[in-house]
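EI: anyone free to look at a 282-residue chain?
SC: sure, send it
EI:
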Amino acid sequence: MFKIRLLSGIVLVAVIICLLVLGGGVLAAALGLISLIGMYELYRIVGAEKTLLGAVGYLAGLSYYLLLFFSKNPAVDSMPVLFFVAFLILCMAVYVFTFPKYSAGQVMTVFFGLVYVAVMLSYIYRTRVMAGGKLLVWLVFLSSWGCDTCAYCVGMLMGKHKMAPNLSPKKSVEGGIGGILGAGILGGIFGAVFTGQLSGTLGSPVLHCAVICMVGAVISQIGDLAASAIKRNHDVKDYGRLIPGHGGILDRFDSVIFVAPGIYYTIVLLMEGTDALGRFLG
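SC: here you go
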């Protein structure tokens, strides 16, 4: 099992590296496909994955990525509220005109799935196309997976206090803190290595990358526990079996889903703060 998990993990990392390097339409299309698979996994736990209601969710996910990709500035353009209102109305139309085929919980899960999976993951693409995004997008995975690794190591060595015993008994407060600090160190190193390329985007690349990764690490642990909570509520061990040794898309990307928008908005805030300070000093 360990060998299978290791090999599939290596392949997954290689694929992600290729997608982030290529960017553009390739990355958007891949994220769209990953989102649809993730939505399918989420819908499956409430029995809506192969239904008309589920199809409405998939259509909304596909439409969302098409609108995002063809927008004039996908890094900053927000999706019109009308899109989400129309999706909700369509979900409710299926709900009432087929009543009592679907439960209210299924309708809520289908709507939630668009935001939880498709919208949240799209921030990887949004980060990639922003100023300096070719480098900054790596912070999403550096903070998420770096936090996981550091938290595991520190937790194994000195973990004593349970972080969320009812969700993940093996996670400790010490491990969580270690994950945050470890991610911050990795971010600082990243900023130091690419100071020249990032200095035009971030005022202080080393400090800012460290802060970005630490914020991402905090959010990463929330995302991981949130995914576990959903599975516990529905008595599910894994969301799927797509990735050998890792489970489904939501099992492997549970923390990345939360980290991507967190990293994006932290970068935006830091960039705006740097610009504001420059205007003040200038």
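EI: The mean pLDDT is 91.
SC: 👍
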